[in-house]
Structures are given as structure tokens and as C-alpha cells.
Write a sequence for this structure.
């Protein structure tokens, strides 16, 4: 039977692994007897395609035709391309996805196609090693990848002729490899600093169940950023013009310098550039650390946020039992010291940070292929909250971030205006409290709500997230059962910049947002309740005794006073008090309204219902 | 009930058909307690709850059905979604209390509105003023004191809710007291979140 494989499709390197007869995950040597296949694809002028170490070595000679770190373009549009990429690549700006123009513009390739070339090589090497074609596969993605990025990864797998059983989050896969290897129990943090992305996940391991408690991250942070700042420094020293060729050479030099400084205090080396030029590079570890420190510091907020969301803090008794390092960039001594400072623990480094994700992916692929393993189960979460837009541009969160998937939640909403027959459902993603600060995923209108006074119609909105993290939304008017469903399209996914910005901002603005959101929301609610009561008094005032009316009026006055302040809780308290006092009135109105609605219909319509009752 | 796949007789609690081993859909009108194999009771052992969640996840999770028929995959997805919902709701004491109230015919959010007494509202307003002042002055000691005070109140509320549910058959009065206690808890949750934003959420 064909064996299932696990693939780590990385920004810098990619790997493939499988589970052997003795139930142990193994990586396949794919490139020159090494397990790491550099994620480099060279499009030759003659139409041929080279993938891996040879392509990477030739990158300075063919900077525009050699695509490195293509993962950063997955699921992205032309608007998401960063300036430093424009310094090297040429882009075809038409269409909605990133297209790289290679071979002097004679050929356009998408990120999905480039990734599929890498996957094809991995698939082929795996088949050679296993002596037969590979079966189903698992491909890993950063935990913070959104729908569009996940969908693009799945598409690349299909394009390469792979059967993608599941996408698994990289930190979760790493934990799986690690936990199984160590037979561990307890709470673990996985700090995953790869070439282009940073993820932090907090997991609880119990009897083979890997429950993700919280995940956070930054989709624009990784070893590439280290190389960029180091390359800039090296270029400053030489005075060379930053042409694509020189940039590529400087980046390659930066990578070598950085790796050497992992073990040395000082490094001095010459890097050949095309056309006989030489880049003379020298740097001390101290200088390197000064350069990359700001980049490393950017991981702190996400780590603290994930700890908080997991219900852990450094002050009380509950803490992390171990920290696992994943990704080549975590070899950097400064990163290790930083991790140790955040978690107060020496990080675990027994497993190779480069291969651990692929090993975990192989274990999961094997488990899925065999209909689940008795001893292993991954319970992953949704990384960003999903919400709906409310009046005043505030977000009502429906599925909270870090909910275990599959997940679903239903919330009831009501109409704001008398006789309102439609309701716009605007689906958003993000942690901020105001719609303008979140990412819009989809928008649709629920039509056909029967006309009723404001606040009487009931609309139920359901969000359902499946095991692959894909969202579907449906809306239903409760009284009539009118229903509309949409599947949120992958093309509406968040850009990396947006995820990053939203995360950083949600951390920075956490307190202020809540107050602003509630103030807006409760002022609107206060206004709504006063208006609807006043118009109700005019129509149905006779339904109240004068004492009842006085009690409500007193509360309306208190509410008006509270709305002049900035204290949303005071406004809320008065609203609730007003609402409580007018509850009987609302019920009487509703009864009257229903009676009137029924009375408006012809006798025939109700004849069938009415008669049996009369006979009783 | 009969198995959807082979029509064999299946008991209402059985996850799988005894004949063909097909995963069975959750019986209609199952409450979240039953989803985890529990009876409706506020008092539960958190470790037992977690164990049940893990065991059922192992049996129901879509990962077990990656190679199954589309129908079985859908049943697995529905059951796993419901299981996650049940665990999320029941592991949090206040969410569990709110859910139990709903099962007992009380809408905790709607009914809370009629249970606000003026003294509590005034006390809240004073507390909010203190909080606003401490935040304005960035007075960390005052903020810590306010957060601790609110946490103590939450602990007292949680105890009271547990005590009221522990009554042999909580009457209307006890249920109303729980509604009020839960409504008050929301105020203190907000106070903690604002006074100490870096702390883990206050619900248990």
C-alpha cells in the first residue's frame, strides 16, 4: 500500500518525511544526501526548471529568474508585495494573485505554481526512496496562515499531483514529533521562528492528545529579516550599488555570516559576486546581535499574548513545563537567550529544529491514512476571531480566537428600524473592536424579514468552521425560517501585513478598544431604546398605567443623563434598568401586534387552524 | 433507533453501530451535558470533564474519518463541533451556570435586566470612578487593588452559584438569585479586564 508522507513546505527549506515499518518518523534525503531541499526554483531561459541547492547557488547569477522564499507570496495579491521584493523580482501586476515575471517577461508564474515545483521534487524523491508512489500527504502551514494562504497551499499540493489529506499547523506538528519522542505530559510552548514567519503555540499534552490552548504570531517575521538587516550593513561597508545581483549576493553573504556567528565570536569572509567582483564581509557577534535585536524583540508581545490566552501567567503557579524551539533561526544564540528570558526556562533543543516539523507531519499523515491512531490526536484552534458588524461599526465576535476546531456558534440579532425587511451581514476577522480595524471577509443581505416594529424580528447568524479551518456563514430569520448561506471564499483572505498589523494593534490597543467599542455600542443602544419607547408611547400609550409610565420615564431621564458621560457601564446599567421596567409594556405590545397581524389575514387562511380549537 | 448504514438496532447512547461500526449521528435534542455523557448537574469534576472530552475527541474527531465515506465524515464533523462546544461551555463555571439556567427555562441575559437593585448599581458606579481615576493616573497599586477586589467578588459569586445549584431542587427564588449573581459577575469580569489587561481571562 502506498505510504503517506508529511511535507514541511518552508520559506527557506522544504522537507519530506514518512513513518517507517517500526513506526518511527524518518526524513528523506532529497538534495545531495541531505534532507533539506532549499525552497529555490530557477526558471531557465530554455524552459527547464531547477529546484533546490543548485538553483539557490545560482541565485546571484539569475536573481530575477530564481524564486526564493516564495511562501511569502502564497495567497497574496499584487498589492501585498513588499518593496524589498520589488528590488529583486519583476511582477506582472494584472489579476488578483501575485505573478512573478521571469525569463525577461516571457513567462509568468504564480506562487502556487512555484510551490508546486518544490512539492513535485519532494514527491519524486519520496517515491524513489520508498520504492513506489506516495499515498496521501499532510502539508504544514504556519499557524497564522489565513484561508487564502491555506487554500493556496492546498492548490499547490493538488497541482503537484498530491492527495492532501489535511493541512497541519507547523508548531502543532513540531509538538507532535517532540511529544511522541519524549512521551511527555504537561504544558509546552512551541517557539517557531522560520525563514519568513513567526508562530508561538501553547499546547497541553495528555495521554497522546495534543490540545492547542492558544496560538499567536507574526506572519512577517523570520530569519529573512535577520538576513536583510545584515545584508544592508554589509552593503553599507562596500559602497556597491544595490542591483538585484548585488542584493542577492549580499543576502547570501549575510546568511553565511549569520550562521558562522552562531558558533564564532567574529567572522571575516569573502563572497564572490558575478562578474569577478568580491564582497568582503566581516562582523562580530555583538554587532550581529545589535542589528537583529529589534527583530527578535518583536516576538515578545505574541508570546505574552499566547500565555495569557492559555490562562497562564508568570506570576501564579500555572506555568509552561517546556519550551520547544523550531525553525533554523532559533539556532541564533540571541534568540535562545530571548526565549529563556520570556518563559523563564532553558529551551529544549534535543530535536533538530529544521526537521522536527516534517517528522510531525509524517506522523499525522500516517495517522490520517490509517483512519486515526489510537495513541495520537491533534486538537487545533482558529487563530483569529470571526465576527459580524453591528450598528455603529462595532464588531460582535461570534467565534473567538483559540476556539478548538471544528467550531460553530450562533448569535441572535434584531432589527433597528420599524418595518425593516432586510439585514446586511458583514463577516469580519480580527481582534479589534471596530470594523474599520478588522479584515472584511464577506458581505451579504438577508432579505424577506416580515415587517415588524424595531426589535421584534429575530435573526440568527451561525458561523461554522470545519476541521481545515474553513468558515461557512448562514443567517436565518427565526419566525419565518428564511435562510441564506455563504461559504467564505479564499480570495477574501487576510494579507500578511493585515494579520500582523491587526495583531500588533490589538495588543497595543486592548484596553482602549474595549472602552471605545462599548461606549459607541451602548450609546447607540440607549438612543435606540429611548426612540423606540417614545414612538411606542404614541401608538400604544394606553397599554400603560400612569404609575408604570412614570417609572419608565424616570429611567429614561436617568439614561439620558448617563449618555452624556463617557462611562459605558453607567449607560449600560441604565439601559438594563429601563429595559427591565418596560418589559411588561413590550410584551403587551407584542401580543397586540400579533393579534393585529392575524386579524389582517383572510378568514380562509386561518380557517384550518381555528376550527379544531373551536370544537374543543 | 436504527443505524443509518446497515439498519441494525442501535442504542441511544451508542456512538458506533454494534453491527457495522459506522459512527452514529447525535440523537436530536441532546443537551451539552449528554454530549459528554454527563447528567444535568452544575457540580462536576473538572478532571473528569477533561478526560471525557479527550476520550470522545479520540472517537469522534474528523481525523479519525479522513478515509471514511462522505456521510460518516459529515457526522464526525457535526459531532466533533458539538463536542467542542460542550467542552468550552461546561468547563467554564459561569458559562455552565448560564447554560443550565437556559435548560431550566431561564434566559440569564434577558432576565438579568429585571434584577438590578439600585445599591449594586451605585456601588458599581463608584468602583468605575475609582477605576477610571486609577487608569488616568496610571496608578499601578490602585489598579492591582481594584483587580484583586473584583477577583474576590468573582470568587464569592462563584461560591454562591455553586451553593444555590447544590440545593436539592433549586426553586424559582434560587434560580433568580443565580441570574442576578451571573449578571453581577459580568461587571466584575469587565473591571478585572480593564484594571489588569495582561492577566488571563477571569472566567474559570
Amino acid at each position: 500500500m502506498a505510504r503517506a508522507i508529511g511535507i514541511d513546505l518552508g520559506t527557506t527549506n522544504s522537507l519530506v518525511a514518512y513513518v517507517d515499518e517500526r513506526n518511527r518518523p524518518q526524513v528523506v534525503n532529497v538534495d545531495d544526501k541531505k534532507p533539506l531541499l532549499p525552497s529555490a526554483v530557477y526558471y531557465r531561459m530554455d524552459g527547464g526548471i531547477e529546484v533546490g541547492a543548485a538553483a539557490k547557488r545560482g541565485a546571484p547569477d539569475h536573481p530575477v529568474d530564481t524564486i526564493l522564499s516564495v511562501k511569502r507570496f502564497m495567497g497574496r495579491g499584487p498589492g501585498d508585495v513588499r518593496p524589498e521584493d520589488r528590488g529583486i523580482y519583476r511582477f506582472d501586476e494584472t489579476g488578483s494573485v501575485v505573478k512573478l515575471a521571469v525569463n525577461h517577461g516571457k513567462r509568468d508564474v504564480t506562487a502556487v505554481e512555484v510551490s508546486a515545483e518544490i512539492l513535485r521534487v519532494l514527491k519524486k524523491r519520496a517515491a524513489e526512496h520508498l520504492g513506489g508512489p506516495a499515498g496521501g500527504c499532510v502539508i504544514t502551514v504556519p499557524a497564522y496562515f489565513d484561508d487564502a494562504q491555506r487554500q493556496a497551499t492546498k492548490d499547490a499540493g493538488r497541482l503537484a499531483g498530491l492527495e492532501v489529506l489535511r493541512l497541519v499547523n507547523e508548531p502543532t506538528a513540531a509538538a507532535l514529533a517532540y511529544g511522541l519522542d519524549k512521551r511527555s505530559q504537561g504544558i509546552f510552548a512551541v517557539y517557531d521562528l522560520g525563514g519568513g514567519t513567526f508562530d508561538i503555540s501553547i499546547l497541553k499534552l495528555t495521554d497522546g492528545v495534543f490540545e492547542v490552548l492558544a496560538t499567536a504570531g507574526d506572519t512577517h517575521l523570520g530569519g529573512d529579516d535577520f538576513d536583510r538587516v545584515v545584508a544592508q550593513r554589509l552593503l553599507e561597508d562596500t559602497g556597491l550599488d544595490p542591483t538585484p545581483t548585488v542584493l542577492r549576493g549580499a543576502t547570501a553573504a549575510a546568511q553565511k555570516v549569520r550562521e558562522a556567528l552562531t558558533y564564532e565570536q567574529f567572522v571575516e569572509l569573502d563572497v564572490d559576486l558575478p562578474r569577478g567582483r568580491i564582497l568582503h564581509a566581516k562582523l562580530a557577534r555583538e554587532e550581529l546581535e545589535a542589528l537583529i535585536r529589534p527583530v527578535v524583540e518583536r516576538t515578545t508581545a505574541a508570546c505574552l499574548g499566547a500565555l495569557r490566552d492559555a490562562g497562564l501567567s508568570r506570576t501564579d503557579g500555572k506555568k509552561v513545563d517546556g519550551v520547544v524551539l523550531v525553525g533554523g533561526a532559533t539556532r541564533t544564540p540571541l534568540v535562545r537567550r530571548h526565549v529563556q528570558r520570556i518563559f523563564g526556562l532553558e529551551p529544549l533543543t534535543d530535536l533538530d529544529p529544521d526537521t522536527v516539523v516534517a517528522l510531525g507531519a509524517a506522523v499525522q499523515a500516517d495517522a490520517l491514512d490509517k483512519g486515526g491512531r489510537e495513541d495520537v490526536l491533534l486538537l487545533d484552534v482558529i487563530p483569529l476571531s470571526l465576527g459580524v458588524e453591528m450598528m455603529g461599526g462595532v464588531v460582535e465576535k461570534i467565534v473567538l480566537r483559540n476556539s478548538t476546531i471544528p467550531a460553530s456558534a450562533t448569535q441572535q440579532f434584531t432589527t433597528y428600524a420599524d418595518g425593516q425587511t432586510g439585514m446586511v451581514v458583514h463577516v469580519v476577522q480580527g481582534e479589534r473592536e471596530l470594523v474599520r480595524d478588522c479584515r472584511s471577509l464577506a458581505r451579504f443581505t438577508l432579505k424577506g424579514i416580515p415587517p415588524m416594529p424595531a426589535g421584534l424580528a429575530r435573526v440568527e447568524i451561525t458561523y461554522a468552521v470545519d476541521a481545515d479551518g474553513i468558515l461557512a456563514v448562514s443567517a436565518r430569520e427565526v419566525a419565518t425560517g428564511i435562510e441564506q448561506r455563504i461559504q467564505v471564499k479564499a480570495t477574501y483572505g487576510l494579507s500578511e501585513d493585515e494579520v500582523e498589523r491587526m495583531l500588533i494593534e490589538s495588543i497595543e490597543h486592548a484596553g482602549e478598544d474595549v472602552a471605545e467599542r462599548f461606549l459607541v455600542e451602548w450609546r447607540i443602544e440607549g438612543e435606540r431604546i429611548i426612540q423606540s419607547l417614545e414612538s411606542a408611547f404614541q401608538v400604544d400609550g394606553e397599554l400603560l398605567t400612569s404609575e408604570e409610565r412614570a417609572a419608565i420615564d424616570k429611567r429614561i431621564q436617568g439614561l439620558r443623563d448617563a449618555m452624556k458621560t463617557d462611562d459605558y457601564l453607567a449607560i449600560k446599567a441604565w439601559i438594563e434598568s429601563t429595559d427591565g421596567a418596560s418589559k411588561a409594556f413590550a410584551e403587551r405590545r407584542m401580543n397586540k401586534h400579533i393579534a393585529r397581524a392575524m386579524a389582517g389575514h383572510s378568514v380562509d387562511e386561518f380557517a384550518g387552524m381555528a376550527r379544531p380549537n373551536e370544537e374543543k | 433507533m436504527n443505524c443509518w448504514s446497515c439498519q441494525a438496532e442501535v442504542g441511544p447512547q451508542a456512538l458506533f453501530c454494534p453491527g457495522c461500526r459506522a459512527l452514529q449521528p447525535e440523537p436530536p435534542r441532546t443537551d451539552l451535558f449528554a454530549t459528554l455523557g454527563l447528567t444535568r448537574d452544575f457540580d462536576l469534576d473538572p478532571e473528569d470533564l477533561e478526560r471525557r472530552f479527550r476520550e470522545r475527541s479520540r472517537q469522534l474527531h474528523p481525523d479519525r474519518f479522513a478515509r471514511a465515506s462522505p456521510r460518516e465524515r459529515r457526522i464526525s464533523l457535526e459531532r466533533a463541533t458539538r463536542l467542542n462546544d460542550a467542552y468550552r461551555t461546561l468547563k467554564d463555571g459561569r458559562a455552565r451556570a448560564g447554560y443550565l439556567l437556559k435548560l431550566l427555562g431561564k434566559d440569564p441575559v434577558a432576565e438579568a435586566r429585571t434584577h438590578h437593585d439600585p445599591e449594586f448599581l451605585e456601588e458599581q458606579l463608584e468602583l468605575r470612578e475609582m477605576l477610571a481615576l486609577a487608569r488616568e493616573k496610571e496608578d499601578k497599586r490602585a489598579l492591582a487593588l481594584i483587580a484583586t477586589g473584583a477577583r474576590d467578588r468573582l470568587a464569592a459569586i462563584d461560591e454562591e452559584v455553586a451553593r444555590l445549584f447544590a440545593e436539592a431542587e433549586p426553586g424559582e427564588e434560587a434560580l433568580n438569585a443565580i441570574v442576578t449573581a451571573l449578571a453581577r459577575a459580568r461587571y466584575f469580569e469587565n473591571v478585572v479586564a480593564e484594571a489588569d489587561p495582561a492577566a488571563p481571562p477571569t472566567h474559570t
About this structure: Residues 16 and 23 of chain B are 5 Å apart (CA to CA). Chain B is about 65% helix and 0% strand. The interface with chain A takes residues 50, 54, 57-58, 61-68, 77, 80-81, 84-85, 87-88, 112-116, 121, 124-125, 128-129, 132, 135, 187, 190, 193-194, 197-201 of chain B (CB under 8 Å).
